[in-house]
Amino acid sequence: MLSDVMEDYLKSIYNLEREHEPPIATSTIAEYLDVTPPTVTSMAEKLESRGLIEREKYAGVELTPDGETVAVEVIRHHRLLESFLATHLDYDWDEVHDEADALEHHISEEFEDRLAEKLGDPTVDPHGDPIPNADLEPPEHPDTEVLADHAEGDALVVARASDRNTDELRYLADAGVQPGTELTVTEHAPIGLFVVEIDGEAVHLPERVAETLEVRPAADEVTDA
Amino acid sequence: MLSDVMEDYLKSIYNLEREHEPPIATSTIAEYLDVTPPTVTSMAEKLESRGLIEREKYAGVELTPDGETVAVEVIRHHRLLESFLATHLDYDWDEVHDEADALEHHISEEFEDRLAEKLGDPTVDPHGDPIPNADLEPPEHPDTEVLADHAEGDALVVARASDRNTDELRYLADAGVQPGTELTVTEHAPIGLFVVEIDGEAVHLPERVAETLEVRPAADEVTDA
DNA sequence: ATATATATTTAGATGCATCTAAACGACGGT
DNA sequence: ACCGTCGTTTAGATGCATCTAAATATATAT
């Protein structure tokens, strides 16, 4: 039986593997999970002995297929919960992450199934992240670019907002920006401010937000949802 | 911050105090939670040092008002979750207990509030147990008797089925017996079998089930729900 | 009243997840 | 090729929840 903490490590490594090329360094995981590096080393030894990760000392760590399956299941739980909280319990999309984190390790298969059924087997969660299917195949992460890389005049659709930074999410939610929102870049000010137009309104976004907000060209409509 | 385990001990002591007069003995708690007595002693010391229980060595344990409040909150979570699973996720009433046990320590105040709102502030759960209100006053447990104490011919309403024994619950659920069900005692056979009539049908119940199933006279209608 | 049975507590150990401090390996710059 | 820096691992400690075995207190029966 895997502990909650082990599941968290596997989920984190999975997420980090989408951002960086494996192997994932000890310090990267430590920072992501807000623990010290020796803690990561010791956990990595346990996960390796259970065949959930491969580990090269002093280099880093990579999920095995088994480890990836565990990670994908936890992520499926997380994103189904987020979707459920948003659509059935009236949570705002910037509030769902922490609650889903707390519950994701504790729901049964039964609960997972009923949730998916109730939601009509959704394929994306409220942040725009793909929801793995019941077979636990790792979902495709569609190609996106960050808003900050776009020039003035570009017409875009919001594809995904990272669910890890509560401040940024709240900012976006307050500004009415969510996956599916159409926007046009009005101005990329030299120092730290980004201006976009949404439904004719000018919305100002700090560069930090623009650097993490993922978008795709407005032309192609939602195909994957 | 209290651990999940501490919350479980407090909840258990609360439940045991409804059954036996305090103080509650070490071995009683040990058996209820399926741990060894020394484990209970050591946990009792911790809970005492936090002012959540009073403890008399070699005698047993009793909740303080603070301890009771914690227990009642956990029980509120548990019973709201049970109600939600039964009414919104199509769980059968004999399936909800384990899932609620797994989740009760991990939901936020926010989640609790939204659940209560969604359910219309229910006052009893699917087993017939009272749901504490948001002020966390300990709920009244209505006077009931067990089915096994009744004589042939008595007309009764099912008030409550303990949610701790999965086997018995499944038996009752299969037999169509649930809180609110009206029944008449047909036969109290001398050795271990109880026969009741429900909607004109004869239903056979093992004595073990009849000894835990709580009922009240059929005359007074549901007043408290 | 004393011996015996039973329940409780104490003592000491284990595994988990974490930490700090210290040792060690890898890697880039001169 | 060496040295120093930086990141990683080892070593050892802590707190939690649990166990078994042993000591001790309480209750019961004669």
UniProtKB/TrEMBL annotation, chains A, B:
Belongs to the DtxR/MntR family. The keyword DNA-binding applies. The keyword Iron applies. GO terms for cellular component: cytoplasm. Homodimer. It comes from Halobacterium salinarum (Halobacterium halobium). InterPro entries: DtxR_MntR_Metal-Reg, Fe-transptr_FeoA-like, Fe_dep_repressor, Fe_dep_repressor_sf, FeoA_core_dom, HTH_DTXR, Iron_dep_repressor, Transcriptional_repressor_C. Residues 2-64 form the HTH dtxR-type domain. This is DtxR family Mn-dependent transcriptional regulator. Keywords: DNA-binding, Iron, Transcription, Transcription regulation. Pfam families: Fe_dep_repr_C (PF02742), Fe_dep_repress (PF01325), FeoA (PF04023). GO terms for molecular function: DNA binding; DNA-binding transcription factor activity; protein dimerization activity; transition metal ion binding.
